[in-house]
Amino acid sequence: MAQVVIENIYKSFPRRQEGKANRLTPTSEENLKESGSEPSSAVSVLRRINLAIHDGEFMVLVGPSGCGKSTLLRLIAGLESITGGNIWVGDRLINDLPPKQRDIAMVFQSYALYPHMTVYDNLAFGLRRSSGEWRAAAQEAAGAESYTKTTTQRPLWAERALVGLTRSLPQGLQYWSAEERAIAQRVATVAQMLQIDALLDRYPKQLSGGQKQRVALGRAMARDPQVFLMDEPLSNLDAKLRNETRTQIVNLQRKLGTTTVYVTHDQTEAMTMGDRIAVMNAGQIQQIASPLELYNRPANRFVAEFIGSPPMNFIPVQVKAPLLIQHPQFRMTLPESWEAALKPYDGRSLILGIRPEHLSVSLPAPKNLPVQVNHIEALGSETFLTVSLTESTSSEGRSDGLLQARIEPDRTVTLGETLWLSVAIDKIHLFDPKTTVRIA
Ligand SMILES: Nc1ncnc2c1ncn2[C@@H]1O[C@H](COP(=O)(O)OP(=O)(O)O)[C@@H](O)[C@H]1O
Ligand SMILES: [Mg+2]
Fold first, then answer.
1. Tens digits of per-residue pLDDT, 344-396?
2. Which ligand has the shortest distance to the CA of 65?
3. CA 143 to CA 140: how far, in whole Å?
4. Which comes out higher in pLDDT, residue 342 or 1?
5. DSSP-H helix ranges across 9-97
6. Which CATH superfamily is 312-439 part of?
7. Closest ligand 1 atom to Cα of 231
8. Pocket test residue of 46, 60, 71 for ligand 1, highest count of atoms within 8 A of CB
9. pLDDT tops 80 at residue 397
10. Does ligand 1 lie within 6 Å of residue 281's CB atom?
């Protein structure tokens, strides 16, 4: 187990040019920092990434497609070279180590199982090749004596040769070295944990998607690495299986205590799985925090909109110190705790953020939002409305001027109806329109 520290990481890919080999041209870090743009020969994909993942932590990287999540994982795994910065695993600087020496296991979206090997051999494959750190542990657990006794009689290479030569023979004629027995024990433990012990003799093509996914997880787990990296491992599963496997992965990770970095573009997955979540956008980390901290105190408008479903509503308003915010259709007085924060914005505009769950159907009042119902989604347990502020100057607000509200399921609403929505005043957020930073 180990902590993983990502220190000021930059990554750029060479711009593809015709007739030129796809070679990496490192981008100078200083250049990036000072000019804020990259030399024309390179595309900057990750910028100034700093992330400290605690020992045993389940860290989720979440962000829209193309924001650089996979690239960051591949840098940690050693499948891509870094352009600038450092990556530490425990007290080892791993920047220049080849993937095999990093003691990191990665699970991909495509399960990447060996099709010509049984589940057993897929699980055992990494163990047979690995340098034997896990074996020392297995040895200890299994009672070291029998293991060391038999291995000392024949050199390891000879043992392995015998195993290899007899592997395709019927079971009774196979040679089981001490090493192979330790591997079998390890495979059995992992297979049991993932409930794939009944599938060990099957080939990947005889497995369902969920089973393949568990074998891929098992292969990563069997090696007992210092770090797990998982890149959208559930996206090929159907919704029900995805939920089940989600829980299973979290429970397994708790049990094993292996430091894990899990990548997803799905905010629900991030919120339900992560100890902490790093929200990424356009090659940069926007915020690193616990799920509820992200929900309650988003650092900026991007995080506010990305975390939570349906997303937060944004409405431009005018500030009138000390505590008034105004819109052509409503005006509200904020609690006194806002006074200091609003002062510098007196007479200027701000973006008001309200989550759909913090709007509710109310009575006409100056502080309430007059809206017209455009769309109703009744789900039984809750109802979502898409509404537009009545007579709103349509150039303001979201591009389409639409808001979403979550209301009680037993409130009957008709299409085109005019409603007044009240805002849970202690749940609002305000954002600077220029920097998009949340004002606290
Ligand atoms: N080998 C590569 N060469 C050039 N550009 C790449 C390469 N790999 C990824 N990219 C670019 O880097 C950006 C981030 O990609 P990726 O890390 O795969 O995003 P994500 O996993 O968040 O969807 C994308 O714009 C992608 O086109
Ligand atoms: Mg990706």
1. 999 999 999 999 999 999 999 999 999 999 999 999 999 999 999 986 444 44
2. 1
3. 5
4. 342
5. 29-35, 69-77
6. Nucleic acid-binding proteins (2.40.50.140)
7. 21
8. 71
9. no
10. no
The fraction of the chain above a pLDDT of 70, given in percent, is 87
67 lines ligand 1 (CB under 6 A): yes
User: Would you put residue 85 in left (φ > 0), alpha (ψ -120 to 50) or beta?
Assistant: left
User: Domain segments of the chain: what residues?
Assistant: 4-99+269-296, 119-225, 312-439
Q: Which atom of ligand 1 is nearest to the CA of 16?
A: 4
Report the nearest-CA residue for atom 16 of ligand 1: 68
Residues near ion ligand 2 (CB < 5 Å) are 70
- For ligand 1, atom 7, name the residue with the nearest CA: 13
Q: 90-97 contacts: CB < 8 A, separation 24 or more?
A: 90/2, 90/3, 90/226
SS3 string, 385-399, reads EEEEECCCCCCCCCC
10 Å CB burial of residue 107 (0-12, 13-18, 19+) is buried
Q: In which element (H, E) is residue 4 found? A: strand 4-14
Tell me how long the chain is. 440
369: Cβ contacts below 8 Å, ≥ 6 apart: 329, 330, 359, 389, 403, 420, 421, 422, 423
Please give the Cα distance from 397 to 131 (Å, whole number).
59
Q: Looking at residue 111, what is its pLDDT?
A: 76
Residue 122 is predicted with a pLDDT of 93
The confidence score (pLDDT) of residue 58 equals 98
Secondary structure (3-state) at 287: strand
Mean pLDDT of the chain: 87
Q: H or E element: which one contains 276? A: strand 276-281
Domain 4-99+269-296: state its class. Answer: alpha beta
Residue 14: helix, strand or coil by DSSP?
Answer: strand
